[in-house]
Amino acid sequence: MIGQLIAFEWRYHTRQPAFIAAAVLFFLIGFALTGSSFGPENVAVTAPWLVMEVLAFVSLFSVFAIAIFVANAVIRDTEQRMAEIVFTTPVGRFPYLFGRFSGAFLAAATTLALAPLGMMIASRMPWIDPARAGTLDVMLYLWAFAVMVLPTLVFVTALLFAFAVLTRSPLATYTASIVIYFLYMVCAALTNSPLMAASSPGAGGGALASLLDPFGLTSFFEVTRYWTIAEKNGRFVPLSGILLVNRVVWIAVAGIAWGVAYRVFRFRLLGKAKGGARCHPEPPEPRLFAAEDGEGPPAVHDERADGRGSFDRPAPQKAAAPAAQDDSAARSYIRVPQTPSGLASYWSATKIELGAVARSLPARLLLLLWAGLAAAEIRSEIFDGEYGTVFYPATALIIGVLEAPLTIIGMVIVIYYGSELFWREQRFRMASLVDATPVRGLAMVLAKWTTLVVLIAATIATAIVVGIVIQLASGHTDLQPLLYLSLFWFDGFPLALYAAAAVAIHALSPGKYAGLVLVLLFFVATRMVGMFGLEHPLWRYGAGPSVDYSALYGFSDSAAAFGRLMLHWSVLAAGLLAIAAVAWRRLRDAAPERWRVVARNARVWAPALLLALLTGGWVYYDARDVESTETRLQWRADYEKKYRPMASVPQPRISGLVTNVALYPATRRVQIAGDTTLVNDTGTPITTVHVATRRDAEATRVSIPGARLTTDAAFAMHRFELAKPLLPGERTALHFELTLEEMAEENGTLMMSFLTYPSIGYRVTYELTDPKERAKRGLGAMSAPELEDPEAASTGESEIAFEATLSTSADQTAITSGRLVRTWLEGNRRFFHYRAEAPIRNLFSIVSGRYDVARRQAGGVEVSVAYHSDHRANVEAVLDTAAQTLAYCDREFGPYPHRQLKLVEVPPSARFGAYATPDTILLNENRTMLIDLRDKTRLDLLGRRVAHEVAHEWWGHMLVPESRSGSTTLVESLAKYTELMMLERLRGREQVRALLEYELDRYLAGRSGEEQRERTLMTARSQPYIYYSKGAIVLYAIRDLIGEATLNTALRRFIAEERGRADATTLDLLRHLRAVSNDAQFALIDKWLQKIVLYDFRVETASVQPLPDGQFRVSARVMAASYEATSDGTEKEIPLDELIDVAVDDKPLPKQRLRSGANELSFVVKQKPVWIAVDPNILRIDRNRFDNGKRL
Amino acid sequence: MLTISNLTKTYANGVRALDGVTLTIQPGLFGLLGPNGAGKSTLMRTIAALQEPDSGTITLDGHDVVQHPEELRKRLGYLPQDFGVYPGIPAVALLEHIAVLKGILDKSARAEQVNAVLQIANLYDVRKKAVSTYSGGMKQRFGIAQALLGSPRLIIVDEPTAGLDPEERNRFHNLLSEIGEEAVVLLSTHIVEDVSELCPNMAILAGGRVVLEGSPAQLMRQLDGRLWRKTVAKRSVDEYRRNLAVISTRLFAGETQLQVLSDARPENGFELVAPNLEDVYFATLSERIS
User: ipTM of this predicted complex?
Assistant: First the structure.
């Protein structure tokens, strides 16, 4: 019996268009993911870890398919009115339910199974890089499918099945599927899943999130969190730990859901009325054309009032006088003239639809869930942001947090509600009544669209309310309502356009479920075309450029381009709605017939599409200068091919710059002029000088006295043939003028010198950094040589004399490096004359804005903060930290060469948290000035950031490394070290440990995600996890090893030796460290800097015994090991013999010598201890820090 | 006046639902009879402009319905054979909505007519209940009520009396005749009685063609003196069928009554009967089969 039922269900599902569509979809997703070599660069597409990740990722999409299958399986009886026939057959409850469930589950499993098939086929495609193809092991795919996909399918199917059985409503079923997504998104947000964008460092994952994620992705990432490349490639992902628990938990939940469904299900029709129809008897049934005797309704009410419904009206009475009744019936019929109005119909239909939505429990539940999700997102991003920091809940931050989830939820609404709304007349068989009226298709279609738009608006409004409640609850009263309202425009409007597309897709699709899948496909396609090189905005329906917001300048300039695109898409959307309107009355017909009707009525919609061609042309014209990524990358590759050979040609060095910069915030123009002093400090005469200028600059003029100029416009390279060779030690001058359009902001302009000013010789910054891109374009290694390469590294980075005159609007302050000599007003322009009193590194910035400025004298240095008047909260803290760091560095590393230190708030569009230029530090508005420092137990992110940047005035500006591997270690690890010293002084060791916890996690996660090979600190390239995180731990360990004073002595000597030379390398650092350490110390230092070393400490057993003298003896067995890893993460054990911190109850004990293997420790303490920990201060890199301690 | 000429419609699955239907229908009630699958509903839906014919024309009061369905829809009252409603919406609200869709924009006129049709359909008491909770008969009456909204010149009622008890049906018929004085009322049914009681004119549709058209009285007259009846044993029915033009059989007290079409008495025991419309209907259908 059950077998037959399942077989029947199987036949039923496999013949549904939605099944075919889902099967094709999953095959394509699997094929596309592997076929596009999704995953880390150096992990084979067939590697166990990647196969599992991809399949788990694909299973995210299963919810959509399952919702349809379950709706098909359960609701089809009611929807297609088979229920009365099916429910009266003798089929048992269990066979019926199990058959239906199995059908939906089998359909889901079958369609999903096509994903691994697609992946396997894609992995053998010729275009896959042989290095990444790996070996195909079918068992691996089956394992991944069994572990990651099947339990998810069981759970999702069971839960949705239960919902469907209990409610018999597709919408309720969809809502349940949205709940599942919410659960996943919350978990992903909590743990900063690698699949979610913008992982901020250090947000701690949670066992809870790993458990709660029904897709198991979070626990999968948790289990494999610190896996290295070698492990990802070779290690089988075992079903163990939190992943096993997760899978078991969700299968159990599936069982419960199934059980509930089975218990509750009865072969009964649910009440026809929503909500409690079962509680009320059906309405009394009056008979047709009852005898009224001309009295009208009140008579009926009188009858009812005496306790008898009109149903009980005695029949004979009516039969007695048929003629009279009939007359009355006919008499009361009045004809009313008809003047059909599209507007009135639209409005009436909209009210009906909105009423239905407002009454619908799923819609209310959805908004409630969304409110919860929005609150969770805000909490996690704003009150527990990077490094656990609390931010002020400024509206700008809140809308930044809400944007992404809002778009996702909006799309889900359009996908699900769109299908329900659009097919409502068909579903409830109301269509023939409505279609026979003169109502225009457009009125009905617009009503559907409006309802979707209102739902989207309600979602946004909900988010805003949540945001405001959170703001008010935390005492933030500057609500910025207009900024909130911008969500309707920048996020709501594109969704409204999507809604129009969804309506049109449904109008042309064979049916509701096929339409749902098609809409989903359409959305995925429009979001992903960029991945296939189709990045022109015209490919992405309904989307515009991203617009960012700054308190300084408001919305970025892209807002205008956004508006233009919205206009264009609106025209297209109008055409789509017109198409839907034409097809509206033909929904009963087969799709091809509808297409013919649409084609025949082209005159209705074609004008809009033609107009869209026009607006599209306008957008195209507007964006004609915007290069595609491909063009830009190729340009850079071509530049390198053409000019890199020239890099070895001796060039003069810039030794001085006098510049004049006119900023016009109103017109956004910037005019730059300057005179550069060039000096030949090479040993050979120079005959040609190459000057690179910004290539989108206009009216660029460059000249060298007496030199003949040829310009390569394509690469903005200018070649000067000098009249007579520039002999060693001689000087000449380069004069330049250029104009930059759309560079200045209305307020808060920021220009970086390396992006705007001319440079001499080969511009190495144009080089592509991504090895894959380089290989694709036939480029070898980048020009920055390896640490010990004999090849000369690029020069020209040395210090210059600097003088600048900036002019801007009268109400703005312009800031650059140097001491402000004079400021004056000339007409409506304010001028600022800056002159550097000591040479600076040729790496400066120019800022202009309406700033408030706070100043403080610290020693001989004036420290100032220029800030937006609304962002006053942290000004004192910034001044404090800056002054103290300045004092520390000045004392420890060498004197600060300037008499001022300026800190300037810049808009968040700057892609850094903070940035140091000579005597001027740029602070990102959102990531510094909005930090809420009131909770002193939180890690002081602002103090850390300011100290770090002030330290860069030494590490990076006074000590300038040579451009070789390892150079960033000198700049960043030493700044990180200084930051730790300041944090320790300002906030205590506890915060240092908290910070190191984050750094340890970031290092281990970073090496796990390494796309190339892990380098050592000595040779690190652009690998932040090494030079920031490992650097912090190692430098802190070195200071623990040799002491702060000794370490700082070495660093002071290092900087003194390198000042003004710009050729420091990590070898120099090593040399200075060698000079201050003994052999044993240096062995460790050398190992930490030159190798990848990991430690593993584990307290195996620990006990405490009271001693007769009232003290306590603590005995512990500590397992210790050390490993050296290769650059791909393959480890081998190395002998360990080091002094390691051991603490009892946070009280440090003398360091203990730990050797490989078991170590028996024993000590006497005064108070009864509760906790023992090895390496509590994170001075060693331990992959599992959590077994380093034990409760006694 | 409704004129239908040469209407054909073939569905994608090859079924030829309409095969050159030509009819001229004057104001008043017009009955359309036919067995299931004869093409009645297709014809009704096509006239109601819910679907397009492959070829042929339909005009209502001179307006081309196929080319300009909007003209028809302004004058149409349609009660489909099978319909449902949005869930959870009271009758009065739903009627208001349909009234607006039909173009009754004046608020008070609309309210008045909605009340009127509610009373006609005797749903006034339950007007605030959701139509989706109505029983089959009540829902059918709601369908009638909504068809009456506006000032229809053409009322199409497709199997309207299904679900009504005889008494309700009777009253409905009276209402239809009243309305038939001003409008074309097209009544599609397979219940012969409905037509004979109501319709001055009628047509029989079978296999997508009009096989008979005229007034019931005139059509019945054509069978005068040609219709014979005999009660026979059940087992001999097949033999009679082979030899005579049997147009219908019906069980009567355990035995079978045969009705035979013949110009002369077919055999002993047959008695001449006065034809009714049902006989015309069966005769027409059996002629088609033979």
Answer: 0.90
